[in-house]
Design brief:
alpha/beta, D-Maltodextrin-Binding Protein, domain 2, 17 helices, 35% helix, globular
Length: 478
């Protein structure tokens, strides 16, 4: 399960949070924001890393990687796997003969790595993703600033900051510190089989009333509208928040981000919860999700076609590539609104950079961690990721117009074009490490064991606990 909730958008100033993405992926996105990568960068890339042995600094060795270095990287093994980092590691080892890069998988980043942070022996590079990721508020003072990475030249000799889509600094900035470089551009959507929909004359629902009608049509054919798995129940929270933001506007996003006492009781949120509750009551969710492993549940959708729709990030195609029915034309559609009076149009969508890579200050070889990340941002490594994972990275000009033959990737382009500047995201779940507790509440709700009032109460209690905990550093979002 990919870092569904790893998609972050914290701002330190009152600036417009909307990310403007236009044009085909082949031509690159344009994301005008207040400020640029250059204005966010401040330190020189010619300063060697402070930790670990250092070598001679040069254009080809901007961080001063020592000869015969040993680099330790721990990568979340979810929908994207880890071999894309292995690919970059092999390039790095060729460029720095004698150096060794160890890439280790993990599905429980916090559980496995927090003890290493405590003991002062963290890895040199970490993909802090997945449901078990480390809450950023707990380790901010133990992470390197990523400015030197984007200031450095890439393997082709171009400053990295000039090769990236706009907006990549902001999602990884907490307070005034840029500590996470999100590697993948993630589009969140309702995914479906276009071939199945075309065969039955169905269209993706634009409102929750449309969803109910589609659920009734699905039931006539012995199918369900939705399916879920226990570890991914909060995918439906992501869907609900996006739908509520589209319905009620940025007021909803800010209320949730700032942990307001009544944030889950806002009218737009409640309208979405009620609509989802109606879907549950109608029996349009496939039963048993709270006892089903999430990829098995996803296979019920992508391979068995037992359900019509599945909310997920754009990692879903790669995650299920071995469990997708032949002829299943995977396609994305925007999240539904409650009704046509929504603050944002139906075409508005949730999209953000994800897969946050971090470099611990106390890693044995900080220069090695930075060099591996620099290599990942090369044209060769980024192209390999998009071609093999069918998802765009933050590196521009990599994905061709045909999406490497991926219908899902092509649909992402179309959705982004249609959304224009109506693109949004949020970060509070990842920032405060709420997902684990929220999973319990959502599994209960989707199973029909908890009603809307119970869902609202449970989520508000989780939010209030964080808000009222003085030991938790809060980040004000404007």
């Amino acid at each position: 399960m990919e870092g569904m909730n790893t998609r972050m958008d914290i701002e330190k100033k009152a600036i417009d949070r909307r990310i403007f993405m236009r044009g085909a992926l082949a031509a690159a996105f344009a994301v005008p924001l207040a400020g640029t990568l250059a204005s966010c960068a401040g330190s020189s890339s010619n300063t060697p890393a402070a930790a670990g042995p250092t070598g001679k600094v040069s254009k080809d060795n901007p961080f001063g990687l020592a000869d015969n270095a040993t680099v330790d990287a721990v990568i979340f093994k979810g929908g994207y796997g880890i071999d894309y980092v292995d690919f970059a590691a092999n390039i790095m080892q060729k460029n720095h003969p004698g150096s060794t890069v160890k890439v280790s998988p993990s599905t429980q980043i916090a559980q496995e790595l927090q003890p290493r942070f405590v003991s002062g022996n963290p890895p040199d590079l970490i993909d802090n993703s997945g449901a078990g990721s480390i809450g950023f508020n707990t380790i901010l003072d133990q992470l390197e600033d990523m400015t030197s990475v984007i200031e450095a030249p890439n393997l082709e000799g171009t400053p990295i900051k000039d090769t990236l889509f706009g907006g990549v600094v902001r999602p990884g900035t907490f307070g005034d510190k840029f500590v996470a470089l999100n590697y993948v551009l993630t589009v969140y959507a309702l995914w479906y089989s276009k071939s199945l929909f075309d065969k039955n004359g169905w269209t993706p629902p634009k409102t929750w009333d449309d969803a109910m009608k589609l659920g009734a049509d699905a039931k006539k054919q012995g199918k369900y509208l939705f399916v879920w798995g226990k570890e991914a129940a909060t995918y439906y929270q992501t869907l609900a928040i996006a739908s509520a933001i589209k319905q009620g506007g940025d007021e909803i996003r800010l209320s949730l981000e700032n942990l307001e006492p009544d944030c889950w009781s806002k009218p737009a949120v409640q309208a979405v919860f009620k609509a989802m509750g109606d879907v549950v009551k109608a029996g349009y969710f496939k039963p048993g999700g709270s006892g089903t492993q999430f990829t098995q549940a996803q296979a019920q959708w992508s391979n068995d076609e037992a359900a019509l729709l599945y909310p997920s990030g754009s990692w879903i195609e790669n995650e299920m590539k071995d469990q997708t029915k032949k002829g299943f034309v995977m396609t994305g559609a925007p999240e539904p609104t409650v009704d046509s009076s929504s603050d944002k149009p139906y075409t508005a969508m949730h999209s953000a950079a994800g897969e946050p890579f971090i470099i611990p200050t106390k890693g044995k070889d900080v220069a090695g961690g930075k060099e591996l990340l620099r290599t990942m941002l090369s044209k060769e490594a980024a192209t390999n990721f998009s071609k093999t994972r069918l998802s765009p990275t933050i590196v521009k000009g990599i994905v061709p117009a045909d999406g490497f033959g991926s219908s899902a990737l092509v649909s992402q382009t179309k959705m982004l074009e249609a959304a224009g500047d109506d693109i949004f995201s949020w970060n509070f779940v990842d920032l405060y490490g709420m997902n684990k507790d929220q999973l319990v509440v959502w599994n209960s709700f989707l199973a029909g064991s908890t009603n809307v009032a119970g869902l609202t109460k449970g989520l508000q209690q989780i939010t209030d606990k964080v808000r009222n905990d003085d030991s938790v550093k809060k980040v004000k979002v404007s």
